[in-house]
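lol forgot to send this yesterday, sorry. struct tokens for the thing we talked abt
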């Protein structure tokens, strides 16, 4: 499988500030790549460099084999972009917007088909300023597809949307991948990245601090599986005295780390033998969001170093 995006030691400086501090990653063609990070981490700067909207200070970048800055005109005909908080002409309708974009690219898109694809066919003739936030985002997504792009850059495409609208856009993203297109996704919804992405890179302070599949990142940086009880700290103290396992108590819950299958049985037996009050139990595992929050916090307090990206 070829790489649709190649980034090698990318640096972007503004005076003495390094917004991007020498990052490396590749994005395989036909996959969904999630680029994650807190506000100010370097996501937007990197994305705009890949889109050919901003020049880099150092490093090599290729999108579909093209330099985004020196070959921007050729690249823009092969990529689709939906910016964060998409806005457009207030009086134009979605159908007219698609026709307008088609004239800019010299293509002949099918407005009805595109609007049906993003579940906006019933608003084809409605003015943009009358659309809801989710409908405006769907319009932007339809416009990003007017030139039949090979790579789609989707910047926070579901921010502020209700669950139904978010799932509609997830369905479009999955369909783009099924067609062999590459999706470069930025999002603050970590469960969205965990559900959709084949590969993830987390950037903070201009450096990539973790990269890989969601499963790999969770396995590498997450905590072990735990057995959780609704109980007070007294139960945690009792379990610490009886089990050779890590036990944590917080917010009315007690968690026991599990390393082997038999650990769960040992923990349950100890809880029952304690005679202390408890309610409910469940096994829990870290999510990508749990790992993200922990890694960003560790980098902020200086206990985590950046790593190379896959």
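and heres what i got for the seq, position by position
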């Amino acid at each position: 499988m070829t790489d649709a995006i190649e980034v090698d030691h990318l640096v972007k400086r503004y005076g003495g500030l390094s917004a991007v501090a020498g990052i490396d990653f590749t994005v395989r063609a036909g996959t969904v790549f999630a680029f994650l990070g807190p506000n100010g981490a370097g996501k937007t700067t990197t994305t705009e460099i890949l889109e050919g909207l901003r020049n880099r200070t150092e490093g090599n970048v290729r999108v579909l084999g093209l330099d985004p800055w020196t070959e921007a005109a050729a690249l823009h005909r092969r990529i689709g972009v939906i910016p964060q908080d998409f806005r457009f002409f207030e009086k134009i309708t979605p159908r007219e917007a698609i026709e307008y974009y088609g004239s800019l690219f010299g293509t002949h898109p099918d407005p009805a088909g595109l609007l049906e694809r993003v579940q906006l066919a019933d608003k084809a003739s409605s003015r943009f300023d009358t659309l809801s936030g989710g409908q405006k985002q769907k319009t932007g997504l339809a416009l990003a597809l007017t030139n039949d792009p090979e790579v789609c850059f989707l910047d926070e495409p579901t921010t502020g949307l209700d669950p139904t609208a978010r799932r509609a856009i997830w369905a479009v993203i999955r369909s783009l991948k099924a067609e062999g297109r590459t999706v470069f996704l930025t999002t603050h919804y970590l469960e969205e990245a965990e559900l959709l992405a084949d590969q993830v890179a987390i950037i903070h302070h201009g450096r990539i601090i973790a990269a890989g599949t969601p499963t790999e990142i969770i396995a590498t940086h997450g905590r072990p599986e735990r057995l959780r009880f609704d109980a007070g700290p007294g139960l945690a103290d009792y379990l610490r005295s009886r089990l050779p396992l890590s036990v944590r108590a917080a917010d009315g819950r007690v968690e026991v780390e599990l390393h082997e299958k038999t650990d769960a049985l040992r923990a349950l037996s100890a809880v029952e033998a304690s005679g202390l009050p408890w309610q409910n139990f469940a096994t829990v595992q870290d999510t990508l969001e749990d790992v993200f929050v922990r890694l960003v916090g560790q980098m902020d307090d200086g206990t985590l170093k950046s790593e190379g990206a896959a």
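Residues 30 and 177 are 6 Å apart (CA to CA). anyway ping me if u want another try
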